Here is the input.
Amino acid sequence: MTDIIIHCTVALLMPPLLLGVINKTKAAFAGRVGAPYFQPYYDLLKLFRKGTVFSETTTWVFRAGPVITLAATLIAALLVPLGRHAAPLSFSGDMILFAYLFGLSRFFTTIAALDTGSSFEGMGAAREVTFSCLAEPTLFITLITLARMSKSLSLSTILTYPTPAIWLAVGASMLLLVGALFITLLAENSRIPFDDPNTHLELTMIHEVMVLDHSGPAFGIILYGAALKLFVLGAVFVNVALPLSTGNALADWGVFIAAMLGLAVTIGIVESVMARLRMVRIPQLLVGATILSAFAMMLVLR
Amino acid sequence: MTISLDPTAYLLIAAALLALSGVPGLLLNRPLFGQRSAALCAVVASTLGECAVIALLGGTPGATWQIDWPLPFGPALFSTDLLSTIFLLPLFLVTGCASLYSLAYWPAREKSGAGKLTLFLGLFAAAMVIVVMARNGVLFLMAWEVMALSAYFLLTTDQQDSDVQRVGTVYLLATHTGTMALFAMFSLLRGTTGTFTFPLPHTLSQGVPYATVIIVTALIGFGGKAGLMPLHFWLPGAHANAPSHVSAMMSGLMLKMGVYGILRTLSFFDGLPVWLGWLILLLGAWSALNGIALATGQRDLKRLLACSSIENIGIIFIGIGLALVGMQTQSPYLVVCGFYGAFIHIINHGLFKSLLFLGSGVLIHGTGTREIDLMGGLARRMPVTSPLFLIGSLAICGLPPLNGFVGELFLYVGAITNGINAPLPLVALVAPVLALVGGLAVITFVKLYGIIFLGSPRTAAAAHGHEATAMMTGPMALLAAGCLLAGMAPVLLVRLVTPVVGYYGGVTGNIMTQVTGQVPLVPITIANFMMITLALAIGAVYLRRLHRQPAAYGSTWGCGYLAPTPRIQYTGTSFSEMVVNLLGTIVAPRRQRPDMECVILPRAAQFHYEVTETVLNQILTPVFQWTGLAFSYIRRLQHGQLHVYMLYIFVTLFVLMIWTH
Here is the structure.
């Protein structure tokens, strides 16, 4: 019970902090002081207080888009185990629902974008669906590989299975999986090298350009949903990449939160030292990630 | 109940009602009355049929009806078993919906050809009922031909159109090539069993002569009808050019007859060759991937839906392939998951594809075009059709909480379980393939829904688009409700299919409950309800917030550009351009001809963009042209002069006489 409460609290409250840490890291690299760690929370609060402007072309789809996206992401957050504890909602086969919930949220984000009739948002939507489509097989191959290792179809077992001992035993395939997962994480969340969330809105290629016309509370919901998605996929990554367990339930939560902050710093470092890829290179990197995960699968089967 | 209900009799009555439904209108020469009475007949027949199907699924055995006709092919046998029911269930539902829909879509008062359309629609549906009930090879082929030919007359309703004529011919050629294979198959089967009556399930051993040939001809004949790649070439054109409710029936029902044929043929055999499961699995995966890749690039609304039918047939065959591989590797897990996936998807595809095709009819009716890129902003003008179409689009992408997800879930669980347990889990690769197909489906249907219904109208036709009457949206709403119900309560759907899987898969109830226990239907239902509750809660808070602080309205942010026009909007072609380029090497469905000359003052340039059909345009059409050329020499023998024909006969007889000596 305590774990469920902690799970929900961490999953609900922590996501914006990741964005704050990423931005702080990038500021440090650029030699700036940077915005406070809690700036994303202030932004969200401000957005929730603001008024809304709707485009006259939009319909109910535009209003429903952010809401359904957030609801689907929240359910996904309940499926993923955090800090070596089983998820509140955990059953055999939940990995399939997990993947499809992101499909549902993508469907609604993109149709909400198309509802504005803006060509920018059309472009963003087209890129979002195309790149996510390419990232999907990677996620599945990774999950199947881990499922085979752990003999389970449930995310809670699959993702708490990796331990330092496993890493020592099948380090090569774990390394490949981690590589593939990290690329998927960056692609699904539209981070550098796939997309630069910090550019001016219209110049952003994928996510930010899709939500150009949302304003006020709806935009707040979108930003929060995006942070939550980063958190959820980040948690999947951290479970595989840093399978540290102390044996103490509360200490495990501490380790998890530290690992997530470490991940945010890593993303910040990647964003500071890399430039955004050219659009035509992105599919190549994504297919590369699929092949990495396929290699991992082959090594496990061997 | 005191009246003993024989499902077979009810189904035969329903078939007779359907077959004769168009006759009164034709005889009385009063098209309007004819159309209405036919719709009434169809609805009554559908209700009767559904009752019989429910009775069959409930465990009432269907009797076998024998009619001793004077033909020398053995008695005409009609029967029903659980395998038939899985096809009859969507058949009656969609037939009823389509005939009601046709009242408003093809009103006899305004459009010509309504009498013909009504007559053949009834015959078409009745023939399909008989196809799944026939237990005699010749009877089966007769029903099959009636089905194929009435489909031809239905799809050429608009016979003045040259496009329609062309696709009609392609369809006719394709279907008859398939029938030819079926003739061979049933003749060989008769050679093996000595009678045209279908053998009982599992009575033919794998070692009987010509077993392989029988299976391969069945795959060709029935696979062609199902639209399995590479025999799919007739499908996009035929479905696109038929009246929409006919497309709905062709795609939702007729393709499944091919699936039925294959399943029925395989059921004769006791044990199947090892390669067969893998072949079907590969063909299924190939069809699914290429079908959806073709669909992504389409600009024609109905052609897109037709290509996505190839994808869905592919998914059904993936399920069948999984099950067959499972049978050969003694893995009941795969058998159960594969058949569940396939059967559930057969029902589901019948629901959502018919819904989408009926929706396309509303769009064509309201805007007068099939081009996706000429529409836009129709959600405002079609407030009923738009959400119904959205439900269909979500369902066909296999997204929760709709019904498409349920069938795919079984396939995923089967594949991934194989990935965990099998020594060499090749079948597990189905999961990433399905994931890729799902991703492409999202691209396709986001494009379809988004470009057609959202944004602002791209043309005057779209701007004046109007909603259809309740007679058209009503049947759609019924199908959409089916999608929602089956998605929100997947246990119901699984209940329907369970007896069929047990019957066809030959799996004991014990193993079935064990396997279905592994498929998380209840947890997923709970998760779906949680998600909907959450969405409603967040939505309520958001709406209250909007109510307290009303929104301002303005134009879409154009990044400072002050005179945006609807033409600036992203089109469907541009939306899918990126993925079509990526898939270009696999499918090559694209031709682009920007005719620009590099001179100092370039002349007016033309740009042409077309998604081509590889198999039809690059393989079959040239082959047929060469054949035509080659045969033009032989045609010289054929000139209509009687005395030379007599000479031919004499020469033949003479040669034969010498031969025998």
